[in-house]
Amino acid sequence: MTNSFRGRPAGFLHPGCCLRRLVVVAVMGALAMMPPGSHPEWNADEIPLPATKEALRYAIGGDARDYFLYRAEPMGYQLEMIRRFAGAHNARYRIEVAPQVDSRQQKLADGAADVIVCSRDDYFTQVYGRHPVAAFALPDSSVWVVDARNREMIRLLSRWATHLHSGRNALPPASAGRRKASGDALSPCQSLSPYDELIRKYARQIQWDWRLLAALICQESRFRPDAVSPRGACGLMQVMPATAAGFDIPDFTEPEDNIRAGVRLLSFLHDAPALAAADEHNHIKFILAAYNAGVNRIGECRAFAQSQQKDPNRWDDVAEAIPLMRHEWHYTGEHIPSGRFNGSETLHFVRNVWDRYEQYRNLVAE
Predict the structure, then answer these.
(1) CB 146 within 8 A of CB 34
(2) Peptide bond preceding 337: is omega within 30 degrees of 0, i.e. cis?
């Protein structure tokens, strides 16, 4: 099979055999010179993502400019572009770092990735002609590659590429890398915070990946030991005074004591029957939810989800039911004795911690 498509969109790479590099450069130059009014308006709602897709899966090379950490926050040009594309379609995304182009190609061929990202040179020398693909050039000369059979993504990316090259929504290629020049950006890195050794020490006590505990701490306090919430929660893990007192930790504002108190709470939640789940993945998400909202409230959420014919043992099912708990016609029922529950903070908490953990796994050594 060959990469053959009719009506090539702006940003689409399909050069001829002899002059393919020159053609792409010429096309890119022509796109840059075209007046903004000559490009059609881009509307993501016109071509929605399939409702069944949980997340867009990307495999990228992990170049330090494209995807890196700056003060424990994931940043980078490709990350920003991925966020923009996913945000335009109200979709989640997952990123896997695969340094070798061959491994990225294999993920695309196996259906393990929806989009792979490579340089233009790598596309021509290692990707083009090996698989039936469609490729779209970004303003920084990187290339997003999708399987030729994935017609949905081809249509979505054709409009996206046109929109980017119109200049109305383009991210300056060098902007994401400027912060790295300060020396604070680390990719891949060994360290997240000044408290990594403490986090590793206490993560071992509950048999957690230390990067998961770090993601929780970052979400709670951004690694600031002096953080205090409006509700009175203190320190790195935002421990409530009553919680610390219950674990006999009087001076819980010190970093190690604060982590110790937070981890004891996590250990308590791990053993709570109301949070038991069939697998560790869902169990941890229930624990995170309870860390934010309390074990009794999450127990109610699971009972309510079951009353709505959803699986109470799967966090995603429970998360779908939680928004209903804010409505009066639901919260007076027997499954929600504590009353109406907004739940948006808890949903965002679990999602943000887990997404950050996945980013840390990509970028931080074990």
Answers:
(1) no
(2) no
Name the token pair of 309: 């014919």
What totals of helices (H) and strands (E) does the chain contain, helices first? 14, 8
* 187-230 per-position pLDDT tens digit: 456 689 999 999 999 999 999 999 999 999 999 999 999 999 99
Q: Coil, strand or helix: which one is 185? A: strand
Q: How far apart are CA 121 and CA 151, in angstroms?
A: 25
Q: Report how far residue 158's alpha carbon sits from residue 8's, in angstroms, rounded to the nearest whole number.
A: 8
Burial 39-56 (b: 16+ CB within 10 A, else e): beebebeebebeeeeeeb
Q: Which pLDDT band holds residue 16 (cuts at 50, 70, 90)?
A: very low
The DSSP output letter for 180 is G
Q: Cα-flanking dihedrals φ and ψ of residue 257, to 5°? A: -65, -35
The answer to whether 300 touches 341, Cβ cutoff 8 Å, is: yes
pLDDT number for residue 336? 81
Confidence band of 152 (pLDDT split at 50, 70, 90): confident
Domain range enclosing 224: 196-363
Structure tokens at 266: 């996590």
8 Å CB contact between 31 and 156: no
Own/partner long-range contacts of 279-282 (Cβ < 8 Å, ≥24 apart): 282/313, 282/314, 282/315
Could you tell me if 93 and 53 are in contact, meaning their C-beta atoms sit under 8 angstroms apart? no
* Domain-terminating residue out of 153, 182, 211: 182
| Token representation of residue 221 | 């306090």
Residues 54, 146: one domain? yes
The full DSSP string for 194-249 is TTHHHHHHHHHHTT--HHHHHHHHHHHHTT-TT-B-TT--BTTTTB-HHHHHHTT-
Quick check: is 191 in a domain? no
71 within a domain of the structure (yes/no): yes
The pTM assigned to this predicted structure is 0.75
Structural domain tally of the chain? Answer: 2
Do 246 and 127 share a structural domain?
no
pLDDT of 182 strictly over 60: no
Q: What CA–CA distance (Å, rounded) separates 279 from 193? A: 30
